[in-house]
Amino acid sequence: MKGETDNQSSFSRWHGSQRRIGITGGIASGKSSIGKFLKEIKGVPILDADVYALEALAPEETSTRSVLNRYGDAVRDKITSERTTINRSALSKIIFTNPKERLWIEQLIHPIVKQRFAKELYIQKNAPVVALIIPLLFEAQLTGICSEIWVVNCTQTQQCKRLMERDGLTDREARARIQAQWPLKQKLPFADVIIDNSGSSHSWREEVDKLC
Asked: How far apart are CA 67 and CA 117, in angstroms?
């Protein structure tokens, strides 16, 4: 399904020979499921921003030390003796309830994620197609590394339900995470393709299979 194109010129695109599919959408909209399908069924290399962000906060990383210096015991994992291990649940509660702290962590992590994408894209330079799963594609201004953009769409009620089931969140916590990103309706006009994930489980498979 084609998205509106009137405002697409607001974001730069990749114009090289490699097909680079940027997959975005709201939190818990189904991006990872589509990425898994592309990797396992279609053989497409997957580059995942969330994976790179998690790795940026691994033990002994410089960014991990920055987070611990800022928040101290509030985010230090008490289960392990490793002082540089972050309690990700505690960190999430801070950044999703305080916009100032969320901005700080994004300014710390986004440059690291961008560098990792550059590295991985170089490694995959001979692949005819790659898929990049980037939840904050527009917010982090990463459209310039994608030749096309797919937005995975569903209702906010579905997002909330999936988040609560997946991460054990309360309704309030789930909605705070949803509201921390651009709303889906704001992303849809910039899509080359809108993947509808508001139906039954994996109802998008036939469409995605035809697209790639």
From this structure: 22
Domain ranges in the chain are 1-45+124-212, 54-111
1-45+124-212 is a CATH 1.10.246.80 domain: no
User: In this predicted model, what pLDDT tens digit does every residue of 21-36 receive, in sequence order?
Assistant: 999 999 999 999 999 9
Handedness of CA 119, 52, 96, 34 (dihedral sign): positive
Q: Which three-class secondary structure state does DSSP give residue 11?
A: coil
Phi (first) and psi of residue 24, to 5 degrees: -140, -175
pTM to 2 decimals?
A: 0.89
> At 81, is the pLDDT very low, low, confident or very high (cuts 50, 70, 90)?
low
Cα–Cα nearest to 138, from 183, 175, 98: 183
Location of structure tokens 């599919």: 21
